[in-house]
Amino acid sequence: MIRSNPKGIRNGSIVSHASGLSYEADLSLRRLSPRLQAFWDSRDADEELRHEFGLRLVDNWDELFALLFQLYGTRYDFFYHLEQILITAATAWLDRPEELRDLDRHRINEPDWFDSEKIVGGALYVDLFSENLGKLADSIDYFKELGLTYLHLMPLFAVRPGDNDGGYAISNYRSVDPRLGTIDDLRNLATELRKAGIVLVLDFVFNHTSDDHDWAKHAQSGDPEYQNFYYIFPDRTLPDQYERTLREIFPTVRRGNFTWHDGMQSWVWTTFNSFQWDLNYSNPSVFRAMLEEMFFISSTGIDILRLDAVAFVWKQMGTSCENLPEAHTLIQAFSRLARIATPSLLFKSEAIVHPDDVVKYISPEECQISYNPTLMALLWESLATHETRLLTRSLSHRHKLPKHTAWVNYLRCHDDIGWTFDDADAAALGINAYDHRQFLNQFYTGQFKGSFARGVPFQENLETGDMRIAGTLASLAGLEHAIEEGDENEKEMSIRRMLLLQGITLSIGGIPLLYLGEEWGMLNDYDFVKDPAKAGDTRWVHRPRMQWEFLHELNDTIASGSGSIRKRIFRSLQKLIATRKALPALAGQQMELVATGNVHLLSFIRINESYRLIVIANFTDQPQSVDGNRLRTVGLGRFFKDALTDREFGTSEDIVLDAYETLWLMRV
Ligand code: GLC
Ligand code: GLC
User: Most CB within 10 Å of its CB: which of 71, 353, 444, 624?
Assistant: First the structure.
């Protein structure tokens, strides 16, 4: 594991210890102790707080030291950085609001608090949902009514003027975008949410800063210390060498991964937009600086940090610069420091990459929870093909996670859909992955004959034929098309498709996450093109503004029209959520597939302690049946009741599912 050793450390002493470095770790901690004491004394720190921190430090130190040594051990100034990092962590603990320290103490003893059937998430843009943070606090009743207990707010920090990639080009991690409010508004909101039993999630955008962040401005003014915060090159020599093995993430923004900066007369590494400068984590000062920002963000009352763009945080010549081992080392180092200074804080990984790579970020020591992009993409795949073969195959060997970790299951988020399934999973079923992705793109952009979907291409790469899909849940599921055609049957089918998919993400194991707007079946909003700061990015098509007047429709007795469709979607989703929260079988992650002998169905059993629930979902617009006897053998009983409709079934007959129906069967 150790790449190279600093002078003066004998190889023998390194390999002879369990963690590889416990002697060095120990000695370093002894050397650092007086400095930590001096820090506590200078701050007149409470004995109890020193003690608690000390215990966690000792528990985590060996691992933390090994991680930092792997990343920065060869630096001449390693010990200096180690001390800085330790003092940064101690400061975070000391300055942490007492309310959050209480939460820390509580959650240390409850390491899988997030693995409950009671957790249901929602994500939103503050400006598009409620204009600002103050008004968002007034929407807590709305979240409660829907049943949400986890709220992810899209980035709300100060951003550059003009295009800011939906908040992901941050110019200051310590101030809120003034259009949305202030840091105090954020703190108040966090407190209010906590009182309401709602967990708060914010992004930790640590792969890059905006080009107008202070660090970037210092770099632009020629300060070498800050130029080392980024990847800046005087000419194309190194960029060209790197490019040989890099993908392009935003090919319609700019070709390649580097952007010319006139002022510096240099090339800057910019994986995403040209104004998002990738940070150079091979520089320990960057690690320490971002650690301070991380602690600051979490101190506002954040329960979970969504680690943005994790795949890209470490670069090495000759590689794809994605998912490198050091990216994991780096995240684990952040994670250890959170265990020491802010132990209730969890990490959620955003790795929209090959499924083998997605799962590598997930562990109690790295990211405890993770988006499940494979499930997301394959649910859409099954909807397009009416078959669940690829989904089932993928689930059969990819759903299981380590203890104390969980998937975040979603259908739509603020980003596009990419077909990141495994080519070999497809090949095993005789599916050519390249052709299949072409088909899915055609299907979801509505170009495939008979397609119900109204998606929009995102980042179409004319050279490779690659693209990803933008669109809201409702537009991708057929509602937009059905309304266009005035086709009542299609409207019905599209509503059922949405509920089918939601019935699965709400039951398959993990944290379900809605993108708000889904609860009303909101359609694509093509008006984004009128805003020059958004026009170039089709993901805005699926980030519509909340329409509060919809709420009035809930009490109306309208029999037809779009108001009644919205009401039905809202009420059905609300019911799905409430039902989930009342079913202990849906806690935890344990899920076994059930063989139905019918390729149009997906079926699995959820098991938690003595609770069992069998889910069956029909991916076609025709009735489908399954032999009841198969359920008897996995469900250990003869009679079942659908928790959603109370309909009863006996296992001596076929169980027939209506078009796009989902059953949540429990024993009676
Ligand atoms: C993440 C975000 C995405 C953003 C990108 C760059 O993937 O989800 O919206 O464009 O990072 O920050
Ligand atoms: C790519 C990246 C992902 C990012 C997305 C934004 O899929 O892998 O991190 O969120 O692009 O479109």
Answer: 444
The pTM of this model reads 0.95
Q: What is the CA radius of gyration of the chain?
A: 26
Question: Which atom of ligand 2 has the smallest separation from the CA of 309?
Answer: 9
| Atom number in ligand 1 closest to CA 208 | 12
DSSP state for residue 201 in the 8-state scheme: E
Give me the numbers of helices (H) and strands (E) for the chain, helices first please. 25, 25
**Largest Cα span, the chain:** 81
Does 324 score more than 60 pLDDT?
Answer: yes
Tokens of 276: 């998002």
pLDDT over 90, % of the chain: 91
Q: Are 602 and 591 contacting, i.e. CB atoms less than 8 angstroms apart?
A: no
Q: Is 545 exposed, middle or buried (0-12, 13-18, 19+ CB in 10 A)?
A: middle
- In which band, very low, low, confident or very high, does the pLDDT at 19 lie, cut at 50, 70 and 90? low
The predicted pLDDT at position 12 comes to 37
Q: How far is the CA of 352 from the centre of ligand 2 (A)?
A: 6
Q: Which two tokens stand for residue 518?
A: 């889904």
What pLDDT is attached to residue 651? 86
Q: Which ligand is nearest to the CA of 543?
A: 1
From the list 350, 365, 480, 642, the catalytic residue is: 350
Whole-angstrom Cα distance, residue 238 to residue 236? Answer: 6
Catalytic member of 303, 308, 387, 466? 308
Taking the C-alpha atoms of residue 366 and residue 346, their distance in angstroms, rounded to an integer, is 9
Q: Is 195 helix (H, G, I), strand (E, B) or coil?
A: helix
**Pocket flag, ligand 2, residue 490 (CB < 6 Å):** no
Size (the chain), residues: 668
Residue-by-residue DSSP string for 296-353? HHHHTT-SEEEETTGGGS---TTS-SSS-HHHHHHHHHHHHHHHHH-TT-EEEE---S
| 15 has a pLDDT exceeding 50 | no
Q: Is residue 185 flagged as an active site residue?
A: no
Q: Which amino acid is at 290?
A: M
pLDDT confidence band for 562 (50 / 70 / 90)? confident
251 within ligand 2 shell (Cβ under 6 A)? no
pLDDT category of residue 559 using cuts at 50, 70 and 90: low
Given a cut of 60, whether residue 8 has pLDDT beyond it is: no
Asked if 295 and 342 count as a contact pair (C-beta separation under 8 A), the reply is yes
Alpha-carbon torsion, ordered 196, 197, 198, 202, to 10 deg: 110
Q: Which ligand is nearest to the CA of 321?
A: 2
Q: What is the CA(308)–ligand 2 centre distance, in A?
A: 9
* Confidence grade of residue 7 (pLDDT, cut at 50, 70, 90): very low
In this structure, the residue with its CA closest to atom 7 of ligand 2 is 352
Averaged pLDDT, 493-518: 98
Per-residue CA distances from 128 to 540, 570, 590, 605 (Å): 11, 19, 36, 38
pLDDT band at 635 (very low <50, low <70, confident <90, very high): confident
First and final CA of the chain: distance in angstroms?
A: 54
Residue 558 is predicted with a pLDDT of 64
| pLDDT tier at 109, thresholds 50, 70, 90 | very high
H or E element that contains 110: none
Residues with CB under 6 A from ligand 1: 165-166, 168, 205, 272, 308-309, 350, 414-415
